[in-house]
Predict the 3D structure of the following.
Amino acid sequence: MNNQRSFFFNVDWVTVLIYLALCAIGLLNIHSAVYDVRHPNVFDMDTNYGKQSLYVLSALILGAIILLLESRFLSALAPAIYTITTILLVMVLVVGRNVGGNQAWIPLGGGFRLQPSEFAKFATCLLLARYLSGANVRVTELKSFFIAAAIIGFPMLLIMLQPDVGSTLVFCSLIFVLYREGLSPYFLIIAALFIFLFVTAILYNPLYVILALVAFIALVIWIFKRNKQLVVALLIGLAISIAFIFSVKFIYNQVLQPHQKVRIDIILGITKDLRGKGYNLNQSKIAIGSGKLWGKGYLHGTQTKYSFVPEQSTDFIFCTVGEEWGFAGSVVVLGLYLFLLLRLVVIAERQRSPFSRIYGYGVASVIFFHVMINIGMTIGLVPVIGIPLPFISYGGSSLWSFTILLFIMLKLDSNRMGMIFA
């Protein structure tokens, strides 16, 4: 009885309340986004919002089950969970259903389907935490770094074959976990520089970009010419950068899908296609802007009502928030996410177990990336790559995956005083 009472008080109920609030907001906005006057009840199973209510209920049961598990099993089962999700990622390439150009779904019957890439996120976080918390593992060492990169990269490769660029990029957020565990900040700087080079090589003639880069590197070398190691590093970096710039056009023209190239062109201002590929983004910004300060009210959004924004219950669910709840409602949703992310960092830092700490940063990184990219694409800051807004977007796989991701962390945290393994 004492153990049960201690467990009850050790669960971070503040985080649970934020989770419940986001799920409730999601259900209400899905109800509004695809509202059918013939089925007004939010629990009507003939509608997407009826199915979402079932997903929310099952997610709550799933979260409760996780809280009753033994914490040590989570670390021990990490390789098995990773292996199972990897098998599912291979299966979806063989028997998966193509939806929206991505072969990412395994049909389950009855109109339900499973998206393995969603579950690969928490599986990767678990195995990464298990590996990095092992004895004599240092992410600053080349061997440890490459093994950690392989753990992250293998599911990325399988998901890219679907091809699902959005879900693939989510795994890149785990670089923040490696950074927390000792990876040099130069890796983050280098990653930012390559993104900058990619964009500039698309916007301008690659030859001009290379000439500007050579001139800049030459200036830096002239200033620090006595530092031989820095000079060598800069020359190697210059050679890699030139090779990367030349490869950008190939990646852009041969690797990216046509719709992905158009989305990048629209974001970068290369082209405007308000009635074609840019339609979603344009209507999204109109919907959010039309909400003004207080919004048009629940079930009163005109952009929402007349389906001007495609995928409004999934990738573009934030449009419904902006239109019907206005700037004030949008701030509340963003505030909840910010509070959740800060809470997760606090929870991660107070762990006694390295496994729990590393996993906690994995949870925070994945959720942060989803929120930043999803909301960013609805307001035109990043290309539309199609990833859900955590706990709010329609979909069982997404909601279950994020629930598992979060509640594993809550379970680990509830036993933090007694956990010192790995």
